[in-house]
Each structure stands twice: as structure tokens, then as C-alpha cells.
Records
---
Amino acid sequence: MNQITHRIVEAYTGEYASGKSEVAVNRALELVGFGREVTLVDLDVVEPCYALRPIKKELTAKGLHVVAWETRDTVGLGEAGTILKAEARWALRRSGDIIFDIGYGVEGARTLNLIEGVDEEPSLVVLAVVNTSRPMTGSVRDIVEHVLMLERVDGLICNTHLAEETTAEVVQEGARLVGEASRILGIPVVATIAVAEIAEKIGSRDAAGNPVKAIKRYMPHTFW
Amino acid sequence: MSEKPITGEKRVFMTGNEVVAWAAVAAQAEIMYGYPITPQNEIMHYWTRLAPKFNKTFLQTEDELSAGFTTIGGVLAGKKTFTATAGPGTVLMQEPLAMAEMMRLPVVVVVMQRGGPSTATVIYSQQEVTLTTFGGNGEGFRIVYSTATHQDLFDYTIKAFNIAWKYRMPTFVLGDGYQAKMREPLTMYDPEERGVELVKPEPYVGLPGMPGEERPPGHYRNTYNTEEELNEVVNDHVKAYEQIQNELPEHDEFGTENADLVVVAHGVVARATKQAVEALRAEGLNIGYFRPITLRPMPDQALRAMADRTKKILVVESAQGQLARLLKESLYGKTVEIVPLFRPGVGVTPEEVMARSRELVA
Amino acid sequence: MAVQPAMPRSWRRETKPHKFCPGCGHGIALRVLGQAIDQLNIQDRMVFGCDIGCSLLAWDFFNVDTVQTHHGRTTPVIVGLKRARPELVCVAYMGDGGGYAIGAQHLVSAAMRNDRITVILINNTQYAMTGGQMAPTTLPGQKTETSPYGRDPDMTGHPTQGPEMVATITPESAYVARGTISRPKQLHKMVTRALENQIAGRGFSFVEILATCPTNWRTNAKNTWKFIEETMPTHFKVGELKVPEAFQAAAGGEGARADG
């Protein structure tokens, strides 16, 4: 991964509460770790909490450029609604890698249309994050239906977990379901994600033969 | 026929609002009428997403007045109908709820509290306790469950429909923006598979037979001519509520036996409180925990018994004494000292509760 | 033996004589509605909702399932009911204050959604039950308890043109009319159509009825009649404003005209 020469542009999309922000944050920090210039863009225009805002300072301290509102700069968030930060619209004009964290909604995936130059961006990869512990994406059929609704998806990420109750079995069962959905959809599974200790138990490949990637959970700190 | 929403028991990971929508489906609710307001929106979002799959009805009304009154219409039609709201929406909702109280209509309302007064903040608060328990121009003939976990939200949403239709009383699930938006695992289940009987709804209007000939017409009103007439109706409500006060109060407590201090909190604040009390007890301090689950009716008997066994009570809430007022009413005549830890409109951490508790038993 | 006036089958005899004032227009409006219920044979599958104001005196008027609601809120109760049980014929009965003032947002929203309900609104130019205050329908210069020097349109606006508003915001499948109790035959046709349109599942159906209120108008029989026959129609045009094609075809293109 650290030999990549071209710029990386990734957009993380998926179901409400599927872990898009978590995966995006981990990916952005991973790239920073490779010594790359990285901008993380919060495109969650709906959710007043559980977005990147509360951990913006922490992430900035780690060397990330974060394009996100500060909670105190927004009035009646989630009420006055859909507020796109002007900086976010022009994010693709920045140099370096760009990671988009896209919010949910029936038309959530289309939020990308708000970004200038998105249609001409050759490096763009759209990744759908799936947690099979969520009832809306709890079966192969539901996952397939859901991903088809998202329009453009270039890869799947299995982020199956039950917070602190997660076990290797829970992740593996998710990996099997996402693997099966991937075969039906013809869309590859880019990775199965798990916290370090569980990722270690599973090994480098999940039950469906897809790569396993260890992450750290930052998002629980966005709330309390 | 639509397929069964939940079979078997499943451990799932969700936000609180989604839990409510799934629980309403599991409770075999048929209709939701609602108006958008943060932080309850995803209840409507998920209800509408599930609606075609399970043959459910939804209407986004013109305001919360309409949401409340259409919910009354659904109930009169004999369907399990519910709505959800918050903040200024809860204020508007009081008018239909007063009608439901007067006519004993089993409407179910989910309140996801937000900051107040006025528009305030969109995420979190416990400032709708007074409004939910005693709002409206009446006597508070309502049943209110205050939930703390996602499992509570699932269990008590199902229960709310049962209790509403069993006792014919407006019934509330009182959550808050934290619960609405936070994510945690819970077990979803089909209540009937667990042996929980689902109370069947019955229509008030549109019954078989020619009204006035084969059956009396259903004539329902909330207006009375004389004071005596009204007094009789309200007295009937009082009697019905006495039964509810005997049968429905629920609470959770531990360590209250001869405690030096008992910490009282409800809803999501009870989570921080529970954590704090457990830590303090591990340190060897003689501190207990009490959480009323029903805020209307309050668990009076259990509270009064607890008050006899403790030296002091610390009441913790994200409001300026709305729970404390209910508590004092329950403990009228008791001499136990009640100490406040009021944080209106903001969250309470276990550390704050621990620090204050230590001071009180020092 | 005294001759009893013919009473619609759907009227509840036990609650007659009714409690409206002598000369009140509600009695005629409810007789017309009762006859329409009989004629359409819907007594055992309808719900009648009445508002606050004098309309609430109709809460036990019919041998029909009835719900008396809050001021202005009959429309949403009936909307909630109809959507829950589409097979029922649901009528919301209210006054001009309930429909055009406190409940205006409900009337407008139900009309715009084309809810399959029938709204019957009594226009007697003031709030009657609360003691004769100014209503949205009070005529310019008309004295009421809250317009003691006469309604000043510059300060308080002109009388609400309810059916005209509803006709503007509803689709072609809606039925909208303004009748008057002084033309019961024409009114009967309108109320019947407003029910039939709902039964056929076509759309929102609305009839405003010009009605007398001699008690608050403080008028004798002659002047009461003069006010409803001559004065009110100069501000409120009587006739059908919106008639779905199905009716026009059935009637050979002839609607219930203003002179009906």
C-alpha cells in the first residue's frame, strides 16, 4: 500500500449507522501513517451527532486535514438541516488524497453530486460499508437490494460488529454474507474490518477469503 | 400476507430511533402518523422504509396537532396507531393528548426529548418530563415509561401498545436524543414467540350492525354540559388510575438497604448513575441506586420504602428538577434529605455523580 | 293527533327535538345530510365527526357512529380514521371558525392531499356558540361582539372565500360547492354528490353551507331570510365550483346551478 504513487480518492457510503465514518477515519489515518497528505471530508449533511465534528480536533492533531463543521458553528443542526460546508464542495481541487465520509439517507449516495469535478475524477473509488448486524442489511438479499440502491459502488467493506460484544464468529458470519452478496453483485469485497484483537484472531483472510484489516474505533468518542 | 418481521431472537446493532420503528412493527402496530422533528426523525424514516414490506400505513401530517389527532382517528378506527415527537412538537401534541385522556383513547406516543425551553438544542435533554407526565389541561391520566437502553426501547415500545390497549389510556415511551441517535447492541425478538400476548385493538366506530336499530350508535364526546357530569367522568378516570397505580409501577434498584446515600435518576442518566454507584460500591462505600422506570405512575411504594432505609437521596437529572418534583410528591411526609444534581440540557457523566456522592457521604 | 314532520331514518329520535335555536340553519343542513345518508344507504358504514362550536350539538344527532372532537381538529381526526378504514364513509362537520381559522391548516392540507373525506362547513358569518364574535366569514361592516363598529376589511381582511380556495388547491377529482339552507333541493344534490364522490374513492369533497343564525344576528324571521337570501350571496356565490367528470356525464352535462 505504501508504494502507491497516484492520488487516492475514496468515498465511503452505506446504510445509516453502518460505520462509514469509522472506516473513513481509519483509512485516512492509515494514509497519513504512510506519510501522505490526506484530507477527510465530512459529507454527512443530516446527522447532528455521530459525525466527524466532535473528533475534528483530535484528528487534526494526528496530521489530517479535516473539512467538517464545528458543532458550535452550526445553528440547529439536523433541524435547519442540510448544510454543506462550502469548503467541501471544492475538496477535489486540493492536492493529496481525499477521503469522503458520506451521510445516509434514501438519496445519501447522491450527496457526491454536490462535489465539483466528481464526474471527471479518474481516481474516485466508491466503497459501500456493510454491517450485517443491522437488520436492514442482515441477509444476503437485503445487502444486494441495498447496494443496488446506492447506484455506483466499486467495492464492499464488511464492517460487521456488535460494538463491545463483537466476537470473531460475529465478524466471520458477516464476512460470509457480504462475500455471498459480492458474488451476486459482481462487486469485490475490498476488506473485512475488525478491531485489532479480533482481526488478529481471524488472521489475514476472512471466511470468504477476503482480506482482513484491523482498525481502531474512534466514533464512540463522538457522542458522550 | 406480509412476511413476519422478526423470527427467532437476534442480536443486532442499531440506533434508538430504528429500534422504536422495529419494535412498533414487532408489536403489530399498523399506522404511524407523524411530523418531522429532530431527534425522532429516523423513527419515521425506518417506519416508512419497512411499511411496504409489512403492509403498514404512514402519513406525514401538516403539524403535530394533526399528527396527534390523526393518531386519535386511527385508534378510533380500531388500529394500533402511534406517533413520535420532541420538544416544541411535544407542546403541540398536548391538545390531542388531552382529548385522548378525556376519552380514554389508547394512543401511543414516543417522545425523544431535546433541549428546552423553546427550540433550544436538537440532541439531548430530560426537560420534557413535566410535559409528558402532566401536560395538557387535565390530571395527568397517562402512563409514561422512561427508557435507558436500546433493549428498554424495544421492550417498552412493545409494552406501550399492550398497556395502552389494555387500560385505554394514552401511553408514552420517553426517550431522549442520546438514546435516539446512539448505537448499541440489543436482542430483537417476536413477542408472541416469547409468550408475550399482544393485546388486540378494538374499533370504536364502524362496528357491524345498523346503529340505532341492531346496536346503539357509538356516540363519543369530550364536551359536557354540567360540572356534575364532568366530575363523574373525571372520578371514573381517578378510579381507573388507582388501579393503574397499583398494577403498573416499575423500577430498578440495588444497594438501597441501610444505605448512607441512594442516587435516583431516570432514563439515560440512570446509565451514568448506575456505573457511578457500582464503582463507588466497589470502593466499599454504602451507596445505593434507584431508577424509576414508570414516571407516571411513579413507583411510590418502592420509593417510600427506600426513603425509610437511607440517610440521603441524591437526585440526578438533565433538567432543573423535573424528576425531583415527581420524587418529592412521592415522598411527601418523609424526612429524608434530598440533594439535587441538576444539569439542565446537558449530559451527566459517572465522574460527576461519583464526585458529588463522595462529598455527601464524607 | 299532531302531525309529525317526516324525519330521516338516520336521525336519532331519542335526541329530538334537537337543541339548535329556532330558525338555526344547522337543522336544515342536518336534515339534508340525513336524507342523503338514507338515500345512499350508508348509515351503517359511516362516521360523523363534529367540531366545537354549535356543530358539537350534533354529537348525538344521528343514529350513526359519531365523534365530537376539538375546535378545528375534526378534519385530522376524520383523515386519520379514513386512512385507517378506507371502507367507511367519513364526514367532518364544522363551522366557519373551525374550518377557516383555527383549523385552516388542516382543511388546506387535507384538500391538497386530496384525502377521500367529505367536509361540510356551516357559514353563518360569526362564532355563534361563544357569543357572536367576528369570524373569517363576517361581512364587511357587519357588527359582532369583537367588531362592535362593524368589520373593517382594511384591518381584518375580507370574508374568506372557502370553496374558492379549496377549488384552487384540489385536483380535478375533488368535489367543491357552496350551497345554502334556503335552497334545500339544490343543497341536497350537493351533499349527496359530496358523499358519492368519497364513496367512489375519487377525492376530497367539500360543501360550504350558508346558514342562518337569527339568535346572534338578532333578526326576526323576515330579516333572517332577507340576510341569507339577499345579503350573504352577494359575498358568497352559491353553486358548484368543481365537479368531477363522472357527475357531469351522469347528469348529461347539467350541474347544480346557482339558481337550482
---
Amino acid sequence: MAIKTQPVTVNLGPQHPSTHGVFRMRVMFDGEEIVDVEPVFGYLHRGSEKLAEERTYTQIITLTDRMDYVSSMLNNQGYILAVEKLAGIEPSPRGVWLRMIASELQRIASHLVATGFLLQDLGALGTPLIYAMRERENILDMFEMLCGARITNSYLRPGGVFMDAPAEFWPALDRGLDDIVNTIDELETYLSGNEIVFSRTKGTAVLPKELLINASITGPMLRASGVDWDLRHRAPYDYYDRITFERKLHTASDNYARYWVRVQEARESVKIIRQCIEQIEPGEVRPSFDDVPRLIRPPVGDAYAAIEGSKGELGFYLVSDGGIAPYRMHVRASSLINLTLLRDMLIGGQFGDLFVTFGSVDLNMGEVDR
Amino acid sequence: MTTVWSGDALAEAIEAFAPGSVESSAGTDVWLKPDSISTVCEGLKTRTEFKFDLLSSLTAVDYIDHFEVVYHLTSLPMNASAVLKSRVGHGRTEASIASVVPVWRGADYQEREVWDLMGIRFDGHPNHKRIMLWEGYPGHPLRKDYVTYDQSIASTAPGASGGQEGVE
């Protein structure tokens, strides 16, 4: 005999350990089944775009750190590329290689955090997360060598980076890359063929690729549906045209595919960094203050620059009126836009899969709310 | 490498299927008449010479005497990009433009954000509500005439004493 149930509305968040920050959802359940979802944003809204209008171009770098705070280097890079495009700054080669190394390290760290927390949400409490965080810790130590900061780096400057890497950075990086590969091997031994992971993630929250493109979803989520779209390959910025790497694609477009793509991309990032180390040459890490002054006054106009962030296309749109601060700054936040299909992913699913699906999107509330 | 459509070439191509919709063009930008935005976007997405299937970014800028809505489009099959702009709300009167959510669902949260922070209405949006700030928030903060650091807004927050009770 079927049990009759009544729909119940439950408020999840904003203070909830599985919401990756302060995110709130009003979810209507019918028994175990999700019948309606309404996301509520804004609990971490700090008005970064408005704050940028009263800061100089260099000061804004610190604001970008605080948007997606698990991939600060990538945010710095996206913003710096927009400033360079707007002001017509020619970057120094060594600075570009250094910022590519930094941002690829950051991508590995971000993907490790995403993977660790996904497994935590699956109920594998502790171990996978600690493995992932231990490796991220090594990457943060390397950032500390580069710029003295671990999370909010502000390492990049228009034209390059603010300081050359110290001598002890290079052997540490070499060791660190081997450790990263070992950790990923270890994680994959336990997880990628794990039957419990399979049964919980395969076939859940499947999204067709046409729908993903229509909803502007980019990054690992799009590549997990088999669409070969990576800005590092399709619209190479910095020196990505001198790098060869594989785009890892999966066709299932389910929670497992999204996990798998991130892990494989972390491996590819290690290969990219090795190629950067081979090609980097001595020189200045940023143009002199005669070429790029501390107070940049870009000509009147606008510029949009996008990079392949850890979560998808991370774009910065800057408008200049010729002054020392931007007239308008807009951030194309991939975390927010990747949530567009949250309802499609969750409705019809089970309560137990809710946070797994949510974790597979890999969002960061600092970037969603800005 | 991505091909960037020049403004003049794109304006000509748009005029070919939607006559009278282009206002002007310069550099890589095309300015469209606000009432033609739905037709043009539908054409840019479906016609085989464009195939702009992904809306990269949608935002707006306050130029004091008018607002400008900015669309950055990407075509995955052609690896091309284009910039569309449209001037609305001349003289800071009621600013509104047709929603492009029927064309690209990716515009959903982005249009809500522009409405919330810049105060441009998107006609035909399926869920036209504020996204970052609460309902009842006074004004739109990204406008240039918004008064910053005004502490009295705290009293309009949901649950604040003297504010609206029970506002979601």
C-alpha cells in the first residue's frame, strides 16, 4: 500500500555546513522527493562593483581576491587582463609566466577543494577532505613564498606580478607538483572506481548539453557534457598558445562526470606548470613605473576580458572615463550563472542527492553574491 | 583564436535580416534600438551565419543621461564573439528593455541582477524580482545618483525594528 504524503517546505541555510558559505534554498519535499526549489541569494553581498568605482585600478586587485576566495589568483588574472586590455599595457614575459604558474596552482587547489567537499557531502566524512586539504595546504605554502599571503594573494599587477619568485620557490614547486600527482593518484584509487561513489553519483542530475549552453554554463560543468570549450584553448590569453594540454571531456553530464572532469583537469594543470617552468626566462617581472605608473589612467572606453576560471568563464567588464578609478566594473561571475539550472537539476531528485548535486556545481558564495 | 565581429560588419549583417534595428556601430560594438532586441537576439542565435548560442555576459552602465545595456555573445560552433549595446531610459525616466530569457536562459539571473542593482526593468522576464538585496530596499545602488553610506537603509531590512514585518 502506498503511503500518502503531504508536501512540506523546508528552509535550508543560510547557516548550514553543506551550503558552501551562506546560501539559502526553500525546498518543497513530497516525502523524499524534491518538488520545488527556490534559491535565495545575497547573504554575502558586499557591493564589490560599487566599491570598485571609488578605488584605483591597483587597489581593486584586493577586492577581486575576496570574490572567489578559493581561487584568488585566477580572479586577479581575469581582472589584470581586463585592465591591460583597457589601458593597452604590454606585460613583461617573466611576469606572465609567473602568473600562469600561480593561477594553474590555484586551479588545482580549487578543484581539490571542490572534490574534497563533494565527497564530504556524499557522506565520506573526513578522510577525502583531509587528503585534498593537505595538498591545498602545500599550494598555499608556495603562494606564501611568492607573495607572503596565502588566501587573499593580490600577487598580480598590471603588466605582470609585483615580486619575483624567491630561489627556494623553484625546488619547492618541483617537489610540490610530484606530491600533487601522488595525492590525486591516491584519491582516485579510493574514489574513481568506488562502487558507493558510482551508485550515488552516476545518473544523478543529468543535464543535456544544449540546455547547458543555452543557460550560459561554462567550465568543468560544460566539459562534463562533452562540449569541448575551454578558453585557454579556444581564446588563448597570456601565453596559453605556447602550451599544449589535453581538454578532458566526459559525456555523461551527471554528478560523477563533473567530479571526474575536475580531477583530470588538476592533472593537466600539473603538466601546464611543468611546461611553464621549462619556458620561463630571467628578466623583469613587471614593466617599470615609467611605462606603467602606479596610478593608471586608461583612455576613455570599455573592455571585456575573460579567462577560464576554476568554475567557468570569469569575465571582467571595465568602463573608463579617463580617471584613476573605473567608471564601472562588472564581474561575470561563473558561480552565479552556473546556478541558473539548479531547479532543473534538483526537482524530481531525492533529498539525499540534494547536497551532492549542489556540491557538484562547485560554487563559491563570495563570487555568487560579490 | 576567437574571431571578434567588427561593429560595422555585424551591423550590416543584422540589418540584412532585421531592417531598421541598428542605431549605430563603432569598433567592435553595435548599438541596437531597444524595441528590436528580441528579434535581433533570436536571429543571432538561430541563423546559420552567426550561431551565437551562448550569452557570455549581460550588464548595464549608468551614463547619467541614459543607461546602456551591454550584451557579450559567444558562438561555440564558430568560435566567435560579438558585443551588442542598447541605450535605454533617456533622461532617467522609466528604463526598460525586452528580456532575452526566452532566447538564452543564461540571462535569467543576470537580468535580475541588473534590475536589482541598476534599476532597469526587463519586460517579459519570468521571475522579475530582486536577487542580491531584499524587496523593499530603497533605490538601486549601482546608479550614479545613489547616496552611499546611508545608515537608514538598515531599518528597511526584513526583521529590522521599524522595518516591514515578515518580508521574505
